[in-house]
Amino acid sequence: MTETALEARHLFKVFGRNPNQAVRRLKAGESRTDTLDAGTAAVIDASFTVNRGEIFVIMGLSGSGKSTIIRMLNGLHDITDGSVVINGDEIAGVPASRLRQIRRENVSMVFQHFALLPHRTVADNVAYPLELKGVPKADRLAKANEVIAMVGLDGWGDKLPSQLSGGMQQRVGIARALAADTEILLMDEAFSALDPLIRREMQEQLVELQEKLQKTIVFITHDLNEAMFLGDRIAVMRDGRIVQIGTPEDILTDPANDYVEQFVQDVDRARVLTAANVMERPRPVVADTAGPRTALRQMRDAYMSAAYVTGRDRKLLGMVTDRDAVKLVRKGETSLKSILKPVPQSVPEDEVLMNLFVPAVESQLPLAVVDAEGRLTGVIPRVTLLAALGPGPNSTEEITLPLPPVSHAEIAAVLGEAADAVAPAATTGDAARVVERAEGETKRAERARDEAEPQTEGEVR
């Protein structure tokens, strides 16, 4: 069962002359603006849980309250109302000595602007939390050097922060938090001060470290793409309130309100949605015990020139084509084994869409999606892949495809030319079925052309 590492319960934070009065009025239904005379409400009735080992991202625009929340989680800001529970310990109202102990043992923080001690070396900066714990110098430096190597700074331990680039300084900040060996890491806009390329590199390194260490991370950001890339779950904030909590896929495909929908409309969907999010029921699929006539009937019904073959356990074994199946019928054979071909392309369920374009174009059939055991769980037609990258279902914007300009004829070709689906007819009945299949392929190409037609006067880019 999932265990809770941190829980926030109905948090309020009001800065001003009469914060308690402001909280009472907010609870009674007054708005943030109505209570300005009593104080500025930075956080209003925020509740969430963070599970052990997950990256929980809190995101929102400037002034939404996200940075205030993270400072409430470790006691840097007093809680006006509500509570924060860390590993079963309530931090609101505890004595300062107990709060310091909770921070040393349970929570570390990585700041936006590094917050390194300029007169100390990299190794001494990283070892500083262990020094506060009273760890002997030799032991803390050994631990510091181990973590420094982990974040890719091996050999830089004797340098001063001023001798490092911004990205390297942020690595030192992460190493310092890791050296403290606390379960929970709080990261407040940790990468926002970095150049875009360095920022992406740091995001990828954090994901790699998380796979090894399985820390509980609360990450604050205003960048939606960063939130989508890092977060196991995301809390979206607006004007001090949490308006939606969900997985990146939940936020992107099922926004809770118009604000969230507008917020996510420019997100890079290709880096967020996975094969499992867009796949369809696999067809045509033929059992390995079936014969060539059954395979041909399945292909005819699906208007396809090939079919996937699976075993009894649904594991993907290969594929057969209608041409080869017709040859078996002519020979009077009843097994597909002799014409079974390996599947040139298949993808795991968790593969992001940006990595599916080349496999989809190269695949004769809709792209096969398999689970960790190799079972066929779905397929992705090319047109479905393109449609998944468009705006949400309520959007009126025209779709911008991540491809160079193409003609209707080229779109039809990508979807599969009808001529490629036509097998030599062995009999009059075979010929009729081939014609029927070719007509189906033509209709599919026409539908794709119609779907690609711009809905406004603009062009499909």
From TrEMBL:
In what residue span(s) does the CBS domain sit?
279-335
PROSITE patterns given in the database record: ABC_TRANSPORTER_1, ABC_TRANSPORTER_2, CBS
Q: Which SUPFAM superfamilies match?
A: CBS-domain pair (SSF54631), P-loop containing nucleoside triphosphate hydrolases (SSF52540)
Compositional bias, Basic and acidic residues, is annotated for 433-461
- Which NCBIfam families does this chain map to? proV
Family statement: Belongs to the ABC transporter superfamily.
* Name the record gives this protein: Glycine betaine/L-proline ABC transporter ATP-binding protein
State the organism of origin: Microbacterium profundi
Q: What is the lineage of its organism?
A: Bacteria, Bacillati, Actinomycetota, Actinomycetes, Micrococcales
